[in-house]
Amino acid sequence: MSRPWWQDAVIYQIYPRSFADSDGDGIGDLPGIIERLPYLRSLGVDALWISPFFRSPMVDFGYDISDHTAVDPIFGTDADAQALIDAAHAHGLRILVDIVLPHTSDQHPWFRDAAACRDAPTRDFYVWRDGHLDGGPPNNWAAGFPAGTSAWTWHAGTAQWYLHSHLPQEPDLDWSNPAVRAAQLDVVRFWLDRGVDGVRLDSINRLGKDPAYRDNVAGERSRQQDWPTLHAYLREVRALVDRYPDAVAVGEVWEFDQRRIVPYLAPDELHLAHNFVFARSRFDAAEIRRTVEEFTGMAGPGTWPAWFLGNHDEPRRVTRWSAPRDDDETREARGRLAAMLLLTLRGTPFLYQGEELGLPDTELPEGVGEDGNGRDPQRTPMPWAPPSTAGPGAGFTTGEPWLPVGGTAERLNVTTELQDPGSVLALYRTLLALRRARPSLRAGSQAFLDAPPDVLAYVRADGGERTLVILNFAATTRRIDIGTPALLLLVSTGDAACSGSPIVMGPFSGVVLEAVAS
Description:
Structural class: alpha/beta
């Protein structure tokens, strides 16, 4: 029986606003992505997850959707979306679109109708409630952002409160309503019919809420997300996705206890779930091992993990995993180690645009930025060429970029790194090619080995092929005796002596080795 394509794939996230601008307006667009498909193919990734490009007021930069089936003009046209799907397939790349099922924009026709009067046809598409006896919101639920604000907003026109798990401009849909489920399934169907290869489902744990809308109680399970009712809803989504051969459903499961993540990966629910426990791991070998072993132990052998270390909402891992006194060389070494970890673990890795260049968060001047939740530093434009030759847009745009590209763009950009065999980009290309060439790295079993403190070591095995990965998270040299006399070095992130055992590894270095039969 053949394996699903997504188990062997490396999936690359594109934040379209910041990837490539084709028309010089300073904002990335779909034609810009099409122009860069040859780069993505040569990088060695297999599929593209594209953040929302649908019609939107852009209060939440596209995650507040006013029409799920139309392309917002800042990103192009409906024809451009089809052209992107077709061009990606011609390059051997699959496409996943990012669909928000739990909420819409307050400018969506459904909500505009619902807010017109209490007996509007789509009134019960959303959650409306009278206030508490004290005149305040119906309960104590809090919005995801802005932090510390209520999840309820008073609507004077109809004299009721409406629920929003995120911004007030993003009212929650009521998924207990069959009409809502049918309407949102139509959205998923629309894009699958257009030929996409799967869907990434944003904030999917927000589908299920306590139907009694009781207060949250400190120390108890949240009543405003991850409520058991959502699993029935997810089964409906999965049943639809399964009607399309090879299509995949990936979920953003915003939970920080892996016991909460595993149920979403039931055989009839999500294929893959983003794991934020792993993504927020410290730069610590023991913690990473515990996290991976805990997840795989709870999930069982039939569940396929998905690993990531950065996305459009999370600080870039080069920044997050660096120490305050690190110099550029040390930060880069930590980033190289992260690349080797992510691309050799058992599971499907997700990369975020610019990760392959070793980009850190961009240090923005005071007062520069558009996101009220502080996520601009990881969303700055992709640098394609040095600003000294390409101008301030660094090859991203011929105009003024919507956010500055940052001070590292002169050194960390695609053009420069493609010409340097020792660059971070060169390492990613090597690791991606190695993963594609070695069945043990794609499909093999995984077993951790005993290792010195601050060292992570594991074997990936498939048939007679054994691949050994050793990662030194220490700031000092480590000697590792793994008891295998004959080893062949496949790739190294830096200073390592690997002709035999013991292996001598420099600070923050990693190696991938083949165990050679004697």
